[in-house]
Amino acid sequence: MTGRNFLLNLEHISLSFKGVKAVTDISFGVRESEICALIGPNGAGKSSLLNIINGVYQPDKGSITFDGKTRQAMKPHHAAEQGIARTFQNIALFKGMSVLDNVLTGRNLKVKSNWIEQLFNLGRAPGDAVFQRKKAEEIIEFLSIQAWRNSIVGNLPYGLQKRVELARALAAEPTLLLLDEPMAGMNNDEKYEMSRFILDTQREFGTTIVLIEHDISVVMSLAQHVVVLDYGKKIGDGTPDEVRINPEVIDAYLGLKH
Amino acid sequence: MNTLPSWLSFQATERHIDVAIRHKRLGIWQEKQWGELYREVLRLVHLLGEKGFTQGDTLFLLTNPRPEALLVSIAAHWLGGVSAPLDPHCDDVKILGLLRELQPVFVFAEGQMQIDLLLKINTKQRLVVYADARGLSRYDHEILRNYSDLKSNTLDGLNAPSSAKPSHDAFVFYRLDENDQVEVQKLTHSEMLSHGRQLINQETLTNKEEALAARNFAASGHMRYLLAPWLLAGFKLNFPENSDTRDIDRRELGPTLVAGTSQTYQRLENLVKSRLPLVGTARRTFVNWSLTTDINSSPVRKAIAYWLVIRPLRDVMGFSRTRVPLLVGEALPEDSLKFFASIGIQVRDWSDKVTEQNILAASPNQNSRHAALTETARVTE
Asked: In this structure, what are the phi and psi dihedrals at residue B339, rounded to the nearest 5 degrees?
């Protein structure tokens, strides 16, 4: 599964924790500007795989090709510099800060001025501050969270916090966006809204998205490519229609296998 | 000079560099001067004319209040046409029913959701101008035009004289009644301007006012008592960032002129009441004591009540500077009127007194479909 069309390509990735295999020999590719969903039962290795892609975990075996560069290991900040952003299963925002400030933290790698310029508000600092604020505001508008711009994040409902986390990730202008259960704990209306935002992100910014989601109906309507994991192994890989009729996937999901 | 476009031309000449409109976007109040507004309207006139919009045609608006909707409406008036704002807060089924019945040809739609509705009805639209391009990058329909693209159009040769006449309908309102039948209400240029003048005289409005257009334009009261006075007096008309931010934006702005509906006032009343201390506490007793201050109270009590309770409450609602709080549409319950009076806001009732007489009024300028609608008085959806 190699080729120019793939933005991300995983080859024979394996990872274990003290002998317990979390991921075993997984290979798949994600094309540019596609939404790829990772699905599977709890403990299937989905989050581990996401953590490997953005450098939180280093794989025991295998290699990852991102944007034409192949590597076996990478630090998370290098992943961020290369254009990989992510959100987390458990919201990881600065709860005591405002929505705007949280989104601005996502612009950190885009700041051009150095700390001395910022300290004395000299050189590039004033223009840079205005530019970063404008970019953050564009994301705030894109995700329709203007009404909560100055609200403290910790006081917001869960669904909105998820949206703020997405905003912070988008503020980094990522090429590849990793979303770990972006709709967990949401009601149907919130899920619909979040699906719309994810779809718009792909369409308007051309961002490639890899997401983990348990709600199969959402996955099937949102993703163009679905990878199914079970017990750390890949059991399905294809379009939603192909995966839907895959007997191994049906077994894993309907519990016939376990 | 008794049409809306002629008043825009007048203000563009008289107050060329004065601020006419402010729209909050990306967290900042973006300003437009009367001269800029005039040029933007001319570009829209050109676009509409190019697409075949002529006298008697109707431009439908499917949008929350935003400056683009207002300007495109004036452009339609310029060409002798009518603007028909549909209530964007109606549910999709009702809007679809209305659209199917009315078969719009020229439309201003706010964004993707409204365009999706329009595309569902499958009519022969000639032009759909949209303001928010989000989600529309893959729509390749020839009828769609992004409003922001118009800014790059040249102004050379754009000096078409306005065909609007005072007797022409400026706005027509379509809505479904409780039996899902279409009601039609019309407002001519002269009616709008006459009601606007009445308000200006009675409330001594000047070009120093700051007004907030927070509600949708689907009520005739807003046209008569907000848009017409704006054009006549030449004050600033402010648009919130979106309907979710209107209370925050009002608080930030502190408008001197507010044209609100009963729902608006009641929503603000609930907002304030939800913040009051619990009943039975000493703080609540103090609030109640402050709110029952009247003209005969001692100056000390009045001062304490004003600075510690009334003024902060007015700030919360964004009414700290409000001089002319108007009520348009349905009447406000007595209790709510009393509540607002207790914080020094005397709501003026400019309810829709002409609604009944204007509904179903026929106009010689309507195209055949709309004439048929009015002729039969009420039609089934």
From this structure: -60, -50
